[in-house]
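In pairs, describe these two lines:
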Amino acid sequence: MRSEEVRKKVAYDLTMEYVRQNNVMKNPSNDSPISYKIEIIEKMYNEIFEELKGKNIL
């Protein structure tokens, strides 16, 4: 697996864990539409993906 693919997979896995632990999709007090929640998830994924660049953990 190329390093770019690995970084995408790790970023995805970490994002999904963040979503699960923070109840991003289920939070009843958050009456935001699904599109807003998806934007939050995408933003988190992009941040994690960029932070993994140049890290020696992969």
User: Anything to note?
Assistant: The helical segments are 3-21, 34-52.
